[in-house]
Structure formats: structure tokens, C-alpha cells
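Researcher: I need the complex structure. Ligand is 9D3. Inputs:
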Amino acid sequence: MIFHIMTLFPEQFEAFKQTSIIGRAAQSDLIKLNTIQIRDFSLDKHKKVDDAPFGGGAGMVMTVQPLKDALRSIVVEENHLKRVIYLSPRGETLTHDKVIELSTYDELILVCGHYEGVDQRFIDSYVDEELSIGDYVLTGGELAAMVVVDSVSRLVSEVLKNSDSSEEESFAMGLLEYPHYTRPTDYEGKLVPEVLLSGNHAKINDWRLEQALRITKERRPDLYETYIKGDHSKKVREIIKKVL
Ligand code: 9D3
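Model: Output:
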């Protein structure tokens, strides 16, 4: 998968490139991260990329020309399925299902806005969808783009590893995770639950499901209600009844 990131701050992606799972996956050619400095495409003599909003108001708006030319400079491989995404507080919120959907593209073009945003005509002409990462205010789209790259690329790497761990995962399964323990068995008098030391894997799985149900019921009653309404085996229904 290839991620093209259009940004005024490509340097923000340097550490991310080297240390994230892309850092490792990129070695294996599974994931490529390509940053594009939007300012390089400004035809203005001072390399200006923004201007005052028509109609007045605070802040500046990114102009169409550098964005359009930066986008046109991106070469997408033949037969590759691509999608242009503008990171924006007005976008649909990123969820696990959306991450799965995005993982089906070959190339994602992520446009990071700054200032008050970009000229609406760029969005109307070139953007396939707008994405937000949640209801809080960031200073620009860069961190949001890194969230998209991280979540999508780890899924892509995992699928190609053919690992089943994604099915076990909380948002895939619809439950929050059970608690984890490692050495030592006694930390300042706080002991590891005995069942985890028993070696009885059927019992351990039941215990973990019960814990996951309890924590989900307490912290995410919305996820809990959806989960218990679903279809389950006799064993799982038994554990649900115990937690109810
Ligand atoms: C004054 C109105 N503001 C809208 C809430 C203006 C504004 C705030 C922050 C315009 C742009 C931004 C920068 N944010 C992003 O680019 C952004 C973002 C976010 O702020 N929250 C969650 N997801 C995203 S994705 C891109």
C-alpha cells in the first residue's frame, strides 16, 4: 500500500516514518510513505499557499493552485485503486470499519489542511471523502493523517501476515480487552489471577471473555448492548448470563 501525504509540514512525518510499523513494514516493501511539500508547487513569487477568506472572518484559507498542482504531481501506478482523502473536522469520523474499508485501496492520498482549511472548490473538484479522527480540535491535519496511516497500515501488514490476531481484537470482536499480566507473579503483594497460571486454556479463555464482558459493560455500555444482542454459542451465552 502506498500513502501519499500532501502537507506544509513534511518534517513532522520523519520520526513517524522511521519508528512506526511502517518503519518496519516499509523495509519489506508492503507499505510506502511518500510526503509531498505543498509549498513546492506554489506559483506565487513568495511561495504563498494561503489567502484571506472572501466574506471576511478570522484566519486564512489554503488556495486551490498549489493543492491542485501538488495532487497532479502524484503518480499512481497503473491498475492501482486510489482514493483522495481530505483530513477535516467536518469529515466522517474514523472507525475500525472505515479503517477496513480504506485498507482495500492500493494508494491513499491524504491531504493535510492548515489555517482555517482549504478553498471549498479544491474539495468539490478533487476530494473523494473527508475524514475526521474525533470531536476535538487539532491545529492541522498532520496528526490525523498519521492516525490513518498507522491504523490502516497495521491492518494491511497483519492481513498479509495472515495472522488471526485482528479477529481477537476488541474493536473487531466488539468488546474491550481483558486485563493482561506478565512477570513477576507477585508485584508488591498484588498477585496474578490464579487461573492464568493454571495451564488450562479452556478455563483461561472463559475467564478472559468474562473479564472482557465485565469491563465493556462498565466502560462502554453501548458496545456491551450490541455484543449481547448478537448470535453466540451456548458457552458464550453462559458467560454472558454470569456477567448480566
Ligand atoms: C473555528 C472553527 N474550527 C473548526 C472546528 C476551525 C478549524 C479548527 C481546526 C479548522 C481546522 C482545524 C484543524 N484540524 C484539522 O485539520 C483536522 C482535525 C481536527 O481538528 N479534529 C479531528 N480530526 C481532524 S482531521 C483534520
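Model: Summary of the prediction. Residues 2-153 form a domain with the Alpha/beta knot fold (CATH 3.40.1280.10).
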